[in-house]
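Holo prediction. Input below; ligand is magnesium ion.
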Amino acid sequence: MNDVPSLFGSMVFNDSVMQARLPKDIYSALKKTMSQGTHLELDVATVVANTMKEWALEKGATHYSHWFQPMTGITAEKHDSFISPSGEGKAMMEFSGKELVRGEPDASSFPSGGLRATFEARGYTVWDISSYAFIREGTLYIPTAFCSYSGEALDKKTPLLRSMEAFDKQALRIVRLFGNTSTKRVVTTVGPEQEYFLIDKEVYLKRPDLIYTGRTLFGARPPKGQEMDDHYFGSIKPRVAAFMKELEVELWKLGVYAKTHHNEVAPAQHELAPIFTTTNIATDHNQLTMALMKSVADKHGLSCLLHEKPFAGVNGSGKHNNWSIATDMGANLLEPGETPYENAQFLLFLVAVIKAVDDHQDLLRVSVANAGNDHRLGANEAPPAIVSMFLGEELTEILEALEVGAAYRDKTKHQMEIGVTLLPHFPKDTTDRNRTSPFAFTGNKFEFRMLGSTFSIAGPNIVLNTIVAETLRQFADFLEQSADFETALASLVKKTFHEHKRIIFNGNNYADEWIVEAKKRGLSNLKTTVDALPEFISPKSVELFEKHHVFTKLELHSRYEILMEGYCKTIHIEALTLVDMLKGEIIPACIAYQNDLAKLLERKKACGNYEVSLEHHLLTKIAKLSSNLFEKLTTLETALLHSAEIQKIFDRARSYRDQVLAAMSAIRPVADELETLVAKKHWPFPTYGQILYSVV
Ligand code: ADP
Ligand code: MG
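Structure of the complex:
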């Protein structure tokens, strides 16, 4: 248990296992496929499959599963045992090259947004050789991409891999211009920080809203919330610590570099951060992390809530997508370098990201849109729905100086000009770190902070990789044509900053003034999922994604349908749950308490002067609120019936937002006030206090 190095990756069929177990020629063939994307021959796959099986059997596995990431946002798996008849009623364990490389799950029950109707009814899974196989709970998992027979992506991994290819292609053109001939591949790297809540399982099981929707639909504010700021980085309770320890050990076994954990701002809220890695691996690992958080919590009698906003009035949960650019030689291209040339290259990549974010604010907003995250973005805890960038004072001043051609004087009094002098180093922990920015430069990487906690990080990174690839393409086209590279470079950096500096905002993104200012700057402010999603299928978006072979128009449209459907379904389920809880439990509780009061009042009546009594007062108030509640409930039910009928997906989604969600929001304060009035013995559900402080 304490020997972490030998524990680490012990359940992963990683490079060292392959090297030790595979015949040399097979190992080199596989490595070649991995690094250069060459075709994997079946005879190679057969040997790899057999070796993998032997290894898995030694580790106690009995089954294998193609593991994929359909558009539900979570992972899917279908288990097959290695078992195969060997005559005379006996069995042996087999795993063929074909079974390793390709699977054919019945795909008809996964969301396809009309793709499968247009094409084939079945989909197939293909081994993603760039992500290692691993063993969990007696099953050998093979990371795979999931496509239709005609090659349309039905998952999140395929477009992510495509976006990494597109990025590699354009970034290589840039580094070549800087004289780098040795780099063979440029990748993006990600370290996702994951927030979550941990509550007691018994309490969880008493809240149908948490069970069905992941968030509480009712709940009066507890006497104590997060106002004392005493939870953030506070000492970790033993039960939580035991959970974290087991979680990390399990993650380490799977080769996930879980690194940091701490308590977050809200009571019962925590965070886990891994060490960064290549984006597609980071995506797989983040999916594993979320799945393990749930299953390990269960073992500890806890429940892990990943919803973006499980509780009103306290912070919700997000995910910070720390993103950077790295060469296969290990250089971080967003790190200011040691030489003027490296610094010029850094500045070029930096303004490329600035331009990409400004040009495609809408797509970044789309990439973090869902019903859950709508409760966070724009509230006073998460970045607003407006995308802007934080660069910090120092870097902004440098770029401003370059823009006007003035000499920038850093603290050591060096003059700054591109390609002539050194850039000052940016301390990683500069004091002007801005926690309110949706997209912040943090020394050698960007931190995209708008992601919701349930998100697959695939979506936002597909967008990030593609929009920066597009800017790099434009830059490379221009620079490759220029006679004088240095002059062209200098003017490109200046021009780009000048044209896109409106996206830079180093101030407080939570302030109301920013919304006004952002509007003046012409930045987009897509407040809800319904406003944002249509941008995904705009002509500009289709052109961008098709140009880089990341999504076809058809794939974009299918995703749009799925995301809009998902939005409607989420609110539909929430509304049904709310109706059920009200009718089945809350209203009867109000009636029961009113009955108690009425009986008492009856007795008091006999003694006279009941009008000023406490019971009379309470009874009147509860009766009024209850009938108000019932009226509002009727409005909700009507809205729900009406919305569900609407055919056109955009209109349906808008109706769910404007009618159903609005009706739900009107109900909540009434129900919450009733919770404060009705005797605790009658109230059917654990209160916020009981939930948020359930882990002792
Ligand atoms: P913070 O103060 O935001 O916690 P850290 O330096 O601790 O900053 O990093 C937070 C996350 O950023 C970690 O998951 C870390 O691995 C990741 N990270 C650091 N460097 C990079 C990089 N070059 N590319 C991607 N992610 C990175
Ligand atoms: Mg951070």
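The first helix runs from residue 4 to 7. That is the main takeaway for now.
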